[in-house]
Amino acid sequence: MRILGRRRAESYRFAGLRPAADMYERGPFAVKPAHSQRAEQGNVMAIDFEIPPEAKEVRERVRKWVQSECIPAEKELDSKPLPDVLGPLRKKARAQGLWCPFVPEEYGGMGLGPLANALVQMELGESSLGALSMNTQGPDDASMMTILTHGNGYQKDKFLKPLLNGDKRICFSMTEKASGADATGMQTRAVKDGKGNYVLNGEKWFSSSASVANMALVMAKTNPEAPRHRQFSTFIVELPNPGYTIKRNVHNMAIEGEHDDVLKGGHSEIVLKDLVVPEANLLGGEGNGFNMGQHRLAYGRLRHGMHNVAKAQRALDMAVAHVTKRSTFGQLLADRQAVQFMLAECATQLYIGRLMLLHIAYKAEKGLDLTQENSIAKVYLAHMVHHVIDTAIQLHGALGFSLDTPLAKWYTQVRSQRLVDGPDEVHRWKVGRNVIKAYKQYGSTALAAGGDLL
Ligand SMILES: Cc1cc2nc3c(=O)[nH]c(=O)nc-3n(C[C@H](O)[C@H](O)[C@H](O)COP(=O)(O)OP(=O)(O)OC[C@H]3O[C@@H](n4cnc5c(N)ncnc54)[C@H](O)[C@@H]3O)c2cc1C
User: Fold this and answer.
1) Are 317 and 168 in contact (CB under 8 A)?
2) So what CATH class is 170-283?
3) CA-to-CA distance for 122 and 130, rounded, in angstroms?
4) Contact (CB, 8 A) for 21 and 149
5) Counting beta carbons within 10 angstroms of the beta carbon of residue 41, is it exposed (0 to 12), middle (13 to 18) or buried (19 or more)?
6) Which residues' Cβ are closer than 6 Å to ligand 1?
7) Architecture of 291-453 per CATH?
8) What separation in Å is there between the alpha carbon of 11 and the centre of ligand 1?
9) I need a labelling partner for 263 at 20 to 30 A (CA). Which of 207, 289, 331, 344 fits?
10) 325: which residues sit within 8 A by CB, 6+ positions away?
């Protein structure tokens, strides 16, 4: 896929472009219409949906990797402990150069830009071992990106290196029982002790993977007097730590796989009691925690969306495999128009979802503002994957409801997509406000509704 201006397309190389690390959240919505930003870059846009050969090649390699190595390895988890499966898999992936896709080459990654990374992630999501095998699993990936973008030399050396090397894992502790959708309601306090440390007290909840993490990014209020979005800072906390206690992994509606406790860890409730953090572990400076958190979540939302496309694709394939074999009332299900309509709706939604992600990748490649599209896609893709899996369950009948296929498990897991990284309503609220803002500013809502595509 190449939706680049002709001149730029000639010199386009996805690898070695500006690293993805700083590309996913760009300033306030529509400071300028996207077309005028492009005009300033002297770039005449042509839409060409051919994927650049380099991106195609890497996508093919990852597709083959997932299909021939990761999906078969999932079965090995039934008889072997995770390290015995993941260890050799990671070694093999890395030897083939399949490692940390969006991380710049000088840091040991593949240096893929947003488009190539999107294509790769849309493959990796097909297997529970896909992203893990290439050390690009959530929630770690977005935190790696944060340290990459905002960390100083010491922090990159001490904390980022082992993460990029696959030796350590990291979780993200922002949400509290006191505040979720409105993160500015966080109550956890960080106060300097005068001895070169901050001391944190408070609580966190739904910190994914905390139970398998060796460090955490923890957000806390450092200055209650500052403007609302400048009150918070982010700290790198090494785990285990007596001041950071996992009270429990919260039981939830998702049916997890047998090995998810080691693959992903739970969603933990955390008590922060007199947690001592050296000042050297303050990331990105005091008061920048909220903005860094939004930057991090922006990539997390996209990665979730990319993996949702992969999962929905697998579910649709399963649905078709089933209806092309199953007959009722003397006719193959696949030959019934009602069934074909159901498949058509899934195909339509998958198509829209893919286009959204590719358009966002294009905007990220060009450094254009993509906050509006990110929110639209986040909500859409969460519903899309839910709908496609639901349809696949319906077409499988009781078999779909059973745990004999992964569909029922996926159905319970993807429900969280409408909540994580900001619930539907908060994104729609933002999108709706931007629609009004665009109309007031430019006399048309088009710019807030993908209008710059045309
Ligand atoms: C599976 C899972 C994993 C998670 N992982 C992490 C993690 O690793 N780290 C982390 O810090 N957090 C994590 N979270 C927390 C997640 O980010 C929050 O759950 C989310 O932001 C919503 O916050 P809340 O649950 O407190 O809901 P609340 O803020 O209490 O909101 C409840 C509901 O109110 C409605 N609502 C809220 N605001 C508005 C509004 N302005 N307009 C209209 N309706 C509104 C929405 O329907 C919303 O779902 C995770 C959550 C889940 C479910």
Assistant:
1) no
2) mainly beta
3) 10
4) yes
5) middle
6) 139, 172-175, 180-182, 206-208, 267, 416, 419-423, 425-426, 429
7) Up-down Bundle (1.20)
8) 43
9) 289
10) 332
Q: Rounded CA gap, 454 and 451, in Å?
A: 6
- Compute, in angstroms, the gap from residue 418 CA to the centroid of ligand 1: 9
Query: Residue 167 is which amino acid?
Result: D
Tally of CB atoms within 10 A around 225: 6
| Tally of residues, the chain | 454
pLDDT tens track, the chain, 454 positions: 443 333 333 222 222 223 344 444 443 333 344 444 444 555 555 667 788 999 999 999 999 999 999 999 988 887 888 889 999 999 999 999 999 999 999 999 999 999 999 999 999 998 889 999 999 999 999 999 999 999 999 999 999 999 999 999 999 999 999 999 999 999 999 999 999 999 999 999 999 999 999 999 999 999 999 999 999 999 999 999 999 999 999 999 988 765 566 666 789 999 999 999 999 999 999 999 999 988 888 888 889 999 999 999 999 999 999 999 999 999 999 999 999 999 999 999 999 999 999 999 888 888 888 999 999 999 999 999 999 999 999 999 999 999 999 999 999 999 999 999 999 999 999 999 999 999 999 999 999 999 877 5
pTM for this prediction: 0.89
Q: What is the DSSP letter of 421?
A: T
The best mutation among 169, 174, 184, 208 to test binding of ligand 1, ranked by most ligand atoms within 8 Å of the C-beta, falls on: 208
